């Protein structure tokens, strides 16, 4: 028996309506584009996330939802994939910066899949906003920094004896060199070469004491959280200057 074509024609709009309802029920934003990068599907969660209505973006290039550098480079990514099949994000997922209708930039987690039918390939993006997650992480880092700051003050009490010893060493040396310099000046004639050497040693010991104090100030200073590249060797050297006295006292 031949299939009833009238029933098939009725199923098509019903299936489309059901798919539309399912997409709009999804918690995550779902955006589908064609091979030219044009938006073909934009569900309700995507509308809430980006501040666009579906009608405002359907048919537009997906770059309208992107922040730089992906905004200007996305078409090249798409053409590269279509020509070579080499996936840089498809099936992998990554964190990128997106752009709302009001121009605000915000972080999202993006996962992309490919669907293919007789009309060609479509790229299905599932997007999850990470703004609150990143804010929570920043608050956690800030709390950790505050706790570490308190911890440094507690540690200061334990380190006080070692720090006093570390500062007293150059101060004692300075006093000894100064007394030696006075004795040389009382002689006739004064040995200027030896006196010059003593002055250099006094200067070196004074700088040593100053460096201990500066390292101590860095250690206890409360600082705002910032990210930057660091020379690990210099960090270790700063730590070493603080723990050297205690380590020596413990025979380390």
- Largest sheet data: 5 strands, antiparallel
CA-based gyration radius = 34 Å
Q: Determine the number of helices (DSSP H or I, runs of at least 4 residues).
A: 7
What kind of assembly state do the chains in view correspond to?
Answer: single chain
Decide which structural class fits the backbone. Answer: alpha+beta
SSE blueprint and pairings:
Layout: H1 5-25, E1 29-33, E2 39-42, H2 44-50, H3 54-57, H4 70-84, E3 94-99, E4 105-117, E5 120-129, H5 131-186, H6 192-220, H7 232-249
Antiparallel strand pairs: 1-2, 1-5, 3-4, 4-5
If you had to describe this structure to a student in words, what would you say it looks like?
The relative contact order is 0.07. The protein has a five-stranded antiparallel sheet with strand order 2-1-5-4-3. Strand 1 and strand 2 form a beta hairpin. Helices cover 60% and strands 15% of the residues. It contains seven helices and five strands. The protein is elongated, with a radius of gyration of 34 Å. The chain has 252 residues and is an alpha+beta fold.
